[in-house]
Amino acid sequence: MHLTHLVAFNIALLAAIASPGPAFLVAVKTALTSGRRAGIAVGLGLGLMAALWTAAALFGLEVVFVAFPWAYTIVKTIGALYLIWIAYGMWKGARAPLETEVKPARHAFRQGVLINLMNPKSVLFAAAVLVVIFPPDMTLAENLLVVGNHLIVEWIVYTAIAFGMSTEMVSQRYLRGKVWLDRAAASVLGALGIRLLMDR
Fold first, then answer.
1. Confidence (pLDDT) at 68
2. What pLDDT, in 10s, does the model give residues 62-98?
3. 87: Cβ–Cβ under 8 A, 6 or more apart, which residues?
4. Can you tell me where the transmembrane regions are (predicted)?
5. Which among 87, 189, 193, 71 has a CA at the least distance from the CA of 123?
6. Of the candidates 179, 68, 191, 46, which has an alpha carbon nearest to the alpha carbon of residue 122?
7. 94-117, pLDDT tens digit by residue?
8. Which of 98, 102, 100 is nearest to 176 (CA)?
């Protein structure tokens, strides 16, 4: 493995993080509504689980999902229902005044872990990216380096999002468009959940 492999992986990873998926939306929403500390905590949970999915892909978990499609279907269905439940809560609370109580960091961290835990496509995506970018004969140390790199990149990005989204200027703009922003985010999350549920 060479440095260029890690650079290519990080570029793909940053593009994946920036896409309007459940992890990104929940990270932004948490930082806006619950403050910087909760935003960082949810990002730590998201990053930890994403890195664990990459570790699972490196060590062959995608083979289990391919060999036992029912296991993938069960995890995928639970994940889809979880996303739809979050979307429903966002939509329902769109017109409610912004809660002033800050979400406890441990709750935000747990939510971050659950968001990415309930998305089994993460391991398949990671496996596809890893196969394309990295050589097949990597050592254990190199595999652990990839996982550690993934974890650090995720934590840096989500911490930056938490700092950026929790500033007063951004928060005020969010408050002005809260109803539409919350419902747009809920629509995206709901659509992702339905797509995951219906995908064969």
1. 66
2. 566 666 677 767 767 776 787 787 778 778 777 766 5
3. 186, 187, 188, 189, 190, 193
4. 6-28, 40-61, 67-91, 112-134, 146-167
5. 71
6. 46
7. 776 655 455 778 889 998 998 888
8. 98
**Alpha-carbon distance 42 to 31, whole Å?**
9
Among candidate residues 81, 102, 132, the one with its CA nearest the CA of residue 33 = 102
Spatial separation of the C-alpha atoms in residues 161 and 158, rounded to whole Å = 5
Cα separation, 56 vs 64, whole angstroms: 10
**Dihedral-angle region of residue 138 (phi above 0 means left; psi in -120 to 50 means alpha; beta otherwise):** beta
Domain boundaries, the chain: 3-15+22-198
Residues in the chain: 200
Total-model pTM: 0.72
